[in-house]
Amino acid sequence: MDIRSTIKEALDNNGSVTVADIVRATGFSRAYVHRLFSRLIDEGEIVLIGKANTAHYVPANKEIIARELSRVCKAHLLKIRSNDLREDGVLDEITKKTGIFTDIKDNVAGIVKYAFLEMVNNAIEHSRSETIDIYVEKTQDKIKFRVNDNGVGIFNNIMEKRGFADYDEAINRLLKGKETTDPKGHSGEGIFFTSKAADTFVIRSARKKLLYDNLIEDIFIRRGKYIRGTKIMFSVSLDSTRNVDDIFRKYTNESYDFGKTEVVIKLYQGDAPYIARSQARRILTNLDKFKIVIMDFKDTDTVGQGFADEVFRVWQNAHKDIEITVKNANENVAFMINRAKSG
């Protein structure tokens, strides 16, 4: 019996074939059939799709492989040692072994690949974790991934390197962008741009949870149970209209220099009834690195005279080359700002 012809006939008739199919058709042992399939793979004739109960073989044709991967392999889980890891190598493995990037819009693929590479690289370079867990999945309506490590933790790392006293100070610094604990090797832009590209983007570390929700255009800081290391969760809709290049252009100049940031004022308010001068100084920390600062007063009822004076007279006079733009300011906030600007 010509077992190769049997396999070819099964592929021609059904589009795919399993070891069990050939065992039933020929009576040969599973071990023998497995060896023959391995030989055909080495010869470039067929490709294995799926694992365990979903394992089957298809012709080594790009279109057929892409279709089968898209149908069968929609998730991928890796647990790897960080010192053996290259973020682009992980992305290549996911692309080759799954159908996650098959039949999706170019802008969505670009968003996911950019965010994935940035977040995995952060875990490799900054976490000091021996192992990193990575999970990527495509559902009916979205692509999402997780990057978890057991290292020092992103907020602890910023506190340690910057000498901050609490997690809120570290989070506030992170929100502005250009924050990195390794300025020689990193620009600190990855988290900022990733947070703008996602539908939802979550950073959990220690007892803090930082949630960017671009579906409702808001940011939340919450307290939760203690998390060792850092856990990143990213999600974007398959129908997303965002584009990585558009996001870059929005926050960079003609030479792609990252020069614009947004500051959400309510995140600095805490339980205080209004925003005061001391809070203004916290907000203004590190903003001298930017050419344009957008201050978002959404959900901020009012600000104190000291806050407005510190930002729009004292700091602005000391940084005349930096443009401050205000948005979502109600009548109360606008009055205090205009009063400060008038001197």
Q: Can you describe this structure?
A:
The chain is an alpha+beta fold and 343 residues long. The chain folds into 3 domains: 3-71, Arc Repressor Mutant, subunit A (Orthogonal Bundle), CATH 1.10.10; 73-252, Heat Shock Protein 90 (2-Layer Sandwich), CATH 3.30.565; 259-343, no CATH class. It contains 13 helices and 10 strands. The chain has helices at residues 3-14, 19-26, 30-42, 62-72, 87-97, 106-126, 154-162, 167-176, 190-197, 244-251, 277-284, 305-318, 331-341; strands spanning 46-49, 56-59, 75-81, 131-138, 142-149, 200-213, 218-237, 260-264, 292-296, 323-327. It has a 5-stranded antiparallel β-sheet. A 3-stranded parallel β-sheet has the order 8-9-10, with no helix packed on it. It has a two-stranded antiparallel ribbon with strand order 1-2. Helix 11 (277-284) links the parallel strand 8 (260-264) and strand 9 (292-296). Helix 1 (3-14) crosses helix 2 (19-26), helix 6 packs antiparallel against helix 9 and helix 12 crosses helix 13. The relative contact order is 0.08.
Proportion in helices: 40-55%
Structural class assignment? alpha+beta
What global shape is seen?
Answer: elongated
Biggest β-sheet strands, sense, barrel = 5 strands, antiparallel
CATH class of the largest domain: Alpha Beta
Number of β-strand runs: 10
How would you name the CATH homologous superfamily of the largest domain?
A: Histidine kinase-like ATPase, C-terminal domain
User: Number of domains in the coordinates?
Assistant: 3
